[in-house]
Design goal:
Blueprint: E1 7-11, H1 21-32, E2 39-43, H2 49-52, E3 58-64, E4 67-72, E5 75-76
Parallel strand pairs: 1-2, 2-3
Antiparallel strand pairs: 3-4, 4-5
């Protein structure tokens, strides 16, 4: 299947939320809309993030309040 737009997946954590996923996802979507076929996972916290973003090209994870970790493939940048 051919993808015609950027694929964003959003997983919010309940009590451990380290970033506001909805606001972040809108900003990421607007800045990556020109990248068809790229998969980006946006995770509210690190607890289950590595498993949840296993098939994503990029992972954007709230690691603690005010801080994010960016993953490219399986490597943290």
């Amino acid at each position: 299947m051919r993808m015609s737009k950027t694929d964003l997946s959003l997983v919010q954590a309940a009590a451990r939320l380290c970033l506001t996923c909805r606001n972040v996802s809108k900003r990421i979507q607007s800045r990556t809309a020109h990248l068809p076929g790229v998969k980006i996972a946006i995770m509210g916290c690190i607890v289950n993030a590595l498993g949840e973003m296993a098939d994503a090209d990029f992972g954007y994870v709230g690691s603690k309040p005010g801080k994010i970790d960016l993953y490219v493939g399986k490597e943290m940048c």
